[in-house]
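Methods — Computational structure assignment.
A single polypeptide chain was analysed. Its primary sequence is given first, followed by the predicted tertiary structure written as structure tokens.
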Amino acid sequence: HATRCIPIIEALLEENAFVIIAAEGGPLELLKKEFPTLTCVNFPGYNFTYPSKGSMELQMILSTPKILRGIKSEHNTLDRFIDHYRIDGVISDNRYGLWSKKVKSVFVTHQITIKANGLFKLLEPILFRINKSYIGKYDECWVPDHEGEKNLSEDLAHKKVLPNLHYIGSLSRFKKKHSTHESSRRYDLMVILSGPEPQRSIFEKIVLDQLSSSSLKALVVQGLPEGKIQSQPGVMMFPHLETDKMLEAMKSADMILCRPGYSSIMDLEATGNKAILVPTPGQTEQEYLAKTMMEKGAFYSETQSNFDLARSMEMAKGYAGLDKNDYSDKLKKKVELFLSCL
């Protein structure tokens, strides 16, 4: 979710706020590159491991004690950070322990309802109550989505509401930039790899193997901030692209292939690209978003296990993409109000 934090940070900086970025791993490296002059600190997460096979839900259940310990640990760490850095307010993107009685806190999420599959679907009411309990510890919950029929998250953030919930419009790092970048079409396909291992690498191999036997001209962004530029016949591979270069690349591609992570959906709305969505296996949120986007006629989707590049490229032509929404001032107003209360 690091990319959707970019417009929040930009909005804070426009109001002359002193911003400290706390993250770890790839998200921290990405935000350091976007905001090289800001103070950045390593803030360990839950280190949840995604399985290469088997049930994601079962893995999460087995990991619950570890996750709960992580939430408690980050809550205690935050209290020390508040004192050390003299923090006046906290905006937490899906980190459940980063609320405090000392300062005003905001929870950012698009998942009020957590989806499950099969028999685990019976757990959805329990998951909602747990989610509601944690989010209720924050002063406000900001949902990066539109109100009404043109929303992006559907049941995830619109089926049930919370007392402290506020819709702030979709958050894309490209929102304020899309009208100033126009590129000629240079690539048949742009592949944007993202997400946790081992599934990121598994999907990368599937895609590169199929690209090697195709005539497509492709650009691959590997989602590895510390990697090196590589190439193979017909394919350019970049480990990472910063916002301006990523936008230019997307605008120069006829088709995007990516995971249906919520930040990616918001970016596709901002750029107007057509896309093929391939959910991370077992990640119920992505599977749900891919399904709803297909039902809306926005994007074509296939499973990773049955992915066929040639078929996907042909099928995706029949989907319209998402209508661009103008940049909303809801975020700006929310940030102004947040800062005025500190």
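Note: Residues 56-85 form the longest helix (30 residues).
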